Amino acid sequence: MTPGKYAARSADFALQEHSLLRAEITGLMAEARSLERNILIAVGSVWGFLQLHPPTAADRWARLAWCVPTLFVVLGGWRALAIEIAFKDYNKYLRDTEKLFSDGMGGFQGWETHEAASRRWLFLTGIGLWGVLFVVTILVAVYKYRF
To answer: Which domain covers residue 136, as residue numbers?
Structure first.
C-alpha cells in the first residue's frame, strides 16, 4: 500500500483524534452517571406519587402503574448498555492508537491501556446497579399489585 497524500502529518492527526475521542469518552461517562441518577429520581418520584395517591384495590388497571418504574429501569438499562458498547469501541481504538505510539518506549503505556483492567470494575458495578434496581422495582410492583 502506498502512503497517502497526508502521511507526513498522520501522527499529528492521530494525536488530535486521540484527544477528541478522550473527550467523547469523558462525555459518555458523564452521560452514564447522569442516566443512573435520573432513573433513580424517576423511580423514586413515581413511587412517591403512587404512595401518596394509591390506586384503588378494585381498579386492576390503575394498579399496573406500579410497573412504570420497572419500565424506566429497563429503558435506562438499555441505554446504559448502548453507552457501554460505544465506550468499549472507543476504548479499543484508543488502546490501539496508544500502542502505535508507545512501541519502543521502554514499557510506556497510554492512559487507556493502563486503565483497561480497572474499568472492568466500573462495568461490573453498573451491571450490579441496574440488576438490583430491576429486581427491586419488580418486587415492589408485584407486592403492590397483589396487596
So the answer is: 11-146
Residues 70, 141: contact at Cβ < 8 Å? yes
pTM for this structure? 0.80
Q: Is residue 6 part of a domain?
A: no
Concatenating the DSSP letter of every residue in 37-87 gives HHHHHHHHHHHHHHHHSPPPTT-HHHHGGGGHHHHHHHHHHHHHHHHHHHH
Q: How far apart are CA 101 and CA 33, in angstroms?
A: 31
Positive or negative, the CA dihedral 27, 84, 135, 72 is: positive
- The answer on pLDDT for 138 being more than 80 is yes
Are residues 25 and 111 in contact, defined by beta-carbon separation less than 8 angstroms? no
Count how many domains the chain has: 1
* Residues 50, 33: Cα–Cα separation, whole Å: 26
